[in-house]
Amino acid sequence: MATRKVGLPLMNVISMKGVPILQQLEIEECLLRTSSDNWCIINDGTNKPNIVMGISGKPSELVEIKPVIEDKIPVIRRFTGGGTVIVDDGTIFVSFICNKDSVPDVQPYPRPIMSWSSLLYSKVFHGIADFKLRENDYVFGVRKFGGNAQSITKNRWIHHTSFLWDYKTRNMSYLKVPKRAPDYRLARDHLDFICPMKDYLSRSDFIDKTIEAARSHFSLASSDPPSNFEFTPTSKLLTKQELEAALIKTH
Amino acid sequence: MAMASRLWASKAASFLKISTFNRAFASVVKDLKYADSHEWAKIEGKCATIGITDHAQDHLGDVVYVELPEIGTDVTQGSGFGAVESVKATSDINSPVSGKVVEINEELSSSPGLVNGSPYENGWIIKVEMSNTDEVKSLMDCDQYSKFCEEEDNH
Q1: pLDDT per residue over B73-83, tens digit each?
Q2: Pairwise CB contact (< 8 Å): A151 & B90
Q3: Which residue in A146, A184, B23, B81 is a FRET match for A232, CA 20 to 30 A apart?
Q4: Counting beta carbons within 10 angstroms of the beta carbon of residue B2, is it exposed (0 to 12), middle (13 to 18) or buried (19 or more)?
């Protein structure tokens, strides 16, 4: 993987499997804030179901709190924007952390970054599926299979995606239909709105093709995740007390 | 390079059926000072009122949430003190000056869209008591900032 093309910026690739999503988010925020390198982080499934909200997410509006508390489903508020997902071992996570100067044709704002990412993934799904970026989601036709979120700092940005390679339908019942939803959703509930990637390609093919697509923009090198970093992440696991307080708000 | 960028962008736009080109000539206000990270500062003695520019709000999209610092927080020129959420992104807001936060715009908690609708007036974000008024000399005036935005968008 250490093939270097002259002229392409370097990107370090961290390949993980089954890493807890909170740990992944902490690694990402640390690298975004404290590193000056470009990174691609792949986490092939997370170890157990977690609900992950965006930075401004309110559990009373987004989550069926009573069953979440009863079933002890962790609820995380992450450092990036965007909506709420429930992730598990069927979710594949791909994150790109870039210096804005490494991708100078991409203005460091949400929509240009989203466009850039969709061109990268269009290479992944070329000849395999009817892939489109629809508003801010990755879809096959009208069904969402990948959710995106970003964080943009002065000189760097992260664009990360949770891909639904597979999911358990019962887990979707922990999520409410959000008030803020893309127009194309047309008030569909979760099971009518999403679709799994597994019908189109295998996990390993998806990961291999994603790395290959990244190779057209960057010189890739394998790397280990950072450890013992001195950084205070802002993604946090909500406490039971916070969830109970949110439950009171819904009544 | 600019032509190649425009060609790439128009191919992407055609594929995605979106418009990538923001409106020309975002507004600037004459007597404000501007940072290259697209924040403005209104200097009144030792006090600076700070917000994000029309160029920034136009490129960010509809703001749905503003993360505000607490009153009393120290801010440093060029460093982040808060964030706005728009589309699916959190974007840092950087302070054009150093000092201490003395007031925050609490209206933004219930009406974050003020940042879009009134970026230079009702959408102000914080007020800072400056620790070093000389820092203002490193900020751009409205003409310099307009030119900076034009160059950035043509890159």
Answers
A1: 999 999 999 99
A2: yes
A3: A146
A4: exposed
